[in-house]
Amino acid sequence: MKATIVTIGDEILIGQIVDTNSGYIAKALDKIGIQTHEMLSISDDKQHILTTFAALQNQVDVVIITGGLGPTKDDITKKTFCEYFNDELVVNDEVLAHVTQLIEGFYKRPINQLNKDQALVPSRCQILFNAVGTAPGMWMKKEHTVFISLPGVPYEMKHIVDHQIIPKLVREYQRPYFVHKTILTYGQGESMVAERIEQWENNLPEFIKLAYLPAPGRVRLRLTARGTDPVVLEKAIADNVESLAQIIGDIIVGFDEGETIEVMIGQQLMARNKTIATAESCTGGKIAQLLSSVPGASNYFKGSVVSYSTEAKIKVLGIDSELIAQFGVVSAEVASAMATQVQKILQTDFAIATTGNAGPTSEPGKAAVGTVFIALATPNDVMVAEFDFGQPREKVIDRTANKALEMLQKEILKFLP
Amino acid sequence: MKATIVTIGDEILIGQIVDTNSGYIAKALDKIGIQTHEMLSISDDKQHILTTFAALQNQVDVVIITGGLGPTKDDITKKTFCEYFNDELVVNDEVLAHVTQLIEGFYKRPINQLNKDQALVPSRCQILFNAVGTAPGMWMKKEHTVFISLPGVPYEMKHIVDHQIIPKLVREYQRPYFVHKTILTYGQGESMVAERIEQWENNLPEFIKLAYLPAPGRVRLRLTARGTDPVVLEKAIADNVESLAQIIGDIIVGFDEGETIEVMIGQQLMARNKTIATAESCTGGKIAQLLSSVPGASNYFKGSVVSYSTEAKIKVLGIDSELIAQFGVVSAEVASAMATQVQKILQTDFAIATTGNAGPTSEPGKAAVGTVFIALATPNDVMVAEFDFGQPREKVIDRTANKALEMLQKEILKFLP
Question: Per the database record, which ranges form the MoaB/Mog domain (chains A, B) (predicted)?
Answer without folding.
Answer: 4-172
